[in-house]
Amino acid sequence: MGIISSGFHGKRRTGNPALPQGQYETESFPVLTAGPAPYIARADWEFFITTETGQRRAWSWDEFMALPQVDIRTDIHCVTSWSKLGTSWRGVSLDALFEDVETTSEFTTAHSYGGYTTNVPLQDLLDGQAWVAWEFDGEPLERAHGGPARLLVPHLYFWKSAKWVNGIELTPHDVPGFWESNGYHIYGDPWREERYS
Amino acid sequence: MSSLWRVADVVSADPETDSSRTIGLRVDGLNGNLAGQHIDIRLTADDGYTAVRSYSVATAGMDEILEITVDELANGEVSPYLVRDLMVGDRLEIRGPVGGWFVWRPTNPNPVQLIAGGSGIVPLMAMIRAHEASENPSQFRLLYSLKSPESGFYREELLTLSRESRRLVVDYVYTRKVPEGWPSAPKRLSAETLLANILPVHDSPDIFICGQTMFVETITEWLVQAGYPAASIKTERFGGTGGIR
Ligand SMILES: Cc1cc2nc3c(=O)[nH]c(=O)nc-3n(C[C@H](O)[C@H](O)[C@H](O)COP(=O)(O)OP(=O)(O)OC[C@H]3O[C@@H](n4cnc5c(N)ncnc54)[C@H](O)[C@@H]3O)c2cc1C
What we know:
The structure holds two protein chains of two kinds. Chain A is mainly β.
């Protein structure tokens, strides 16, 4: 046990088993971004997957919308300590996007409009664990939250759920992305409190 | 390693305003910090319950001491304890300093525009102090948005600096109450006021903005619309939903 602060009792808002250690529940939806939010019109939006051999697949907004759409209900956990429980989203599973992609790579880098990057192991993107989401709470995803579309990888800290996502690059090694190069954990499991490197 | 919890001794605790105070922490083996970084503080109750919050470091020294300034949030869990109850001689746990993005390095040759809302001044003050302590000749300008003159942090130091420093210009905007003799009435910060009080686009400043989420969002939006390149703007959000102060 840590050092006890006499007179500190706390509000014990973390008694909920859905909350990882060190998280508190919020009803609002805080916006956290390293810089300004880019503007991307759906007509200009594209989502790509590139493999380690240089193969490239890409979807326009209309092609992306023609893929099977799923509803997702999930908890999200931000490294800055807020968690939001039971959020609802709509989007395309990464399984659908990776269906015809041939790769032996185990690592990926997600790329965003505006230059943001984050690394996620490929196995964390597949098997119903990750989506490209474009609707939140029944409404088109707001620009501040990553609209037109963002990555949604809810089992990792939310900085992995790249806003304004533009594509996934398969990489031969695990290459730290933006926050991972700036002091944050290479993997980011909220249940193991993998906050910082 | 920055991911481990370390023990910090509280070596000073001085009121900054009626609702905030600056706390000095000595951390064995700490080897300074970069201007703009933050630490996490963990408090533990006697039954083992813990709460963790982030606080920016206000200083940028090279030694084992760092300072934070905490603003009390009414009904907050951690900040009232830090502002009212913690005493010199107490110990607590910290993690960090962390962050390599929202930082200013003395080797940076660019002019710098700092924009603070309320307690968002804290990491920007670390940058001002690091700049003053360095030989870096670049121009710094601070725009500090405050509810009232009394709610300003580091008032004496900023006053002295703005009188004596050739490298720093300080501008204030008051949103609820102005100092005596102030030329204008208190008002919400507008895009016009903002743009009239910062380094112009053609100076290509690096811009650091810090405050409550809404403050940071709105200012960033105005700057981008006014033509400041997105890549030149770095932001730090203190959470909460506080409006434009
Ligand atoms: C990187 C970083 C640096 C910071 N630096 C400073 C600093 O230098 N000085 C300072 O005074 N504060 C700073 N903060 C804010 C600080 O971490 C705490 O949020 C603040 O002290 C309130 O904590 P509390 O436990 O008293 O309130 P809580 O009990 O956590 O909050 C009370 C209510 O206020 C709102 N709220 C408060 N904080 C947040 C948040 N982070 N996200 C969402 N909602 C929130 C919520 O609605 C919450 O229910 C910083 C935050 C971050 C992320």
